[in-house]
Structures are given as C-alpha cells and as structure tokens.
Amino acid sequence: MNVRIIAGRFGSRSIKAPRGHATHPMSDRIKGALFNSIGSAVENAEVLDAFSGSGALGFEALSRGAKNVVFVDRDRLAIQTITDNIDTLGCKGETKATQSGVATWADSTDLRFDVIFADPPYGDPQFSTVNHLFGLLKPNGLMVLSYPGRCEAPTGTNGVVVVDNRSYGIAALAFYRKEDA
C-alpha cells in the first residue's frame, strides 16, 4: 500500500505504508484539512510523529518545512517501513525513527517539540499515553490528535488546552495548544 505526500518539497511523491490492519493511514482529505488548518506551524518546527505507522504525517510536515521529525512506533514493520521511506526521500539527517511503545519512549526522553502528531490505533486510542504527550510540548506548542469520532477526546491538562475539534465521519481531530509558560 502506498500513501501520497500532498504538498511541499516531496509533494506528489508516494511512500510505503505497512501491510495489514495494524496501521490506518489518514485519508488525503483529512490530512489536507489538517495541514491547511495548522498553516505554517510546521515551518522550522521540531516534530514528533507518535504512533507513526507509515510516517505519513511526519513526512508531510517535513515536506512542508519542518526542521526535523522523530517517528515513534512500537511495531517493527512500521519502523522498517519508515526507515525505507526515509531512504527513499533522502531525508536521513532530518529524521530519527525509534521502535518503542510511545509511553515508554515519552518517559525516557528529554526532547520537547513544537508540533506533535498523535494517531494511536483506533481500536486502542491510548488516551492516557496521549495525556502524557502533552508534557513533551514546548511553550505555545501544538498537538493534533486523530481519534475515532465515537470517542470523547482528552480535554487537556497542565497548561494544555483544546483550541479546535473537527469531525470527519468516523474520524475526528482534536487540536491542543500549550500555553506560554
């Protein structure tokens, strides 16, 4: 299965997505709406693509001007696919792919991010882990959570507030902003 990068320096290029049902690549329609709504927030940003699957959100951010992207996924096949995509796009110096559970990784890192994309498995949205990711945001940082529309998204905590919520049928996006310290 292939996923298309929509815009930017890698625009119209395809990347691989892992086979099987472990990942659910975001549709071009939703991905386009997401990136249109956050505008220039990814330009020069340090980005985390958590529960990254194919890495489509991180690669889209990199294509649109992100400074660097860290990909974290616990699935070995997903990380291998992301590594292959890094090689295909020639962006090794701007990326890091880590095979780990997101909660475990978040507990062990001292990195902070301008933008975080969290797209956990729809069968297990892992909202407690998502809440933990709020602590990895820099002041004024933005986090976008993709979740099943039938669920209630976390409301934010520790200076992180919901700034927008959009529904796209069975999928929904919640946008969070960390207030300045």
Q: Report the average pLDDT across residues.
A: 90
Looking at the structure, the CATH topology is Rossmann fold
The global form is globular
Q: What is the spatial order of strands in the main beta sheet? A: 5-4-3-6-7-9-8
Q: What is the domain tally?
A: 1
- Secondary-structure element order, as H and E? EEHEHEHEHEHEEE
Q: How would you describe what is shown here?
A:
The protein has about 180 residues and is of the alpha/beta class. It has a single domain, classed as Vaccinia Virus protein VP39 (Rossmann fold), CATH 3.40.50.150. It is about 25% helix and about 30% strand. The chain is built from 5 helices and 9 strands. The chain has helices at about 30-40, 55-65, 75-90, 100-110, 125-135; strands spanning about 1-5, 15, 45-50, 70-75, 95-100, 115-120, 135-150, 160-170, 170-180. A 7-stranded mixed beta sheet has the order 5-4-3-6-7-9-8, covered by helices on one side. Strands 1-2 form a two-stranded antiparallel sheet. A hairpin with a 2-residue loop joins strand 8 and strand 9 (about 170-180). The longest helix is centred in the middle third of the chain and has 14 residues, at about 75-90. It is globular.
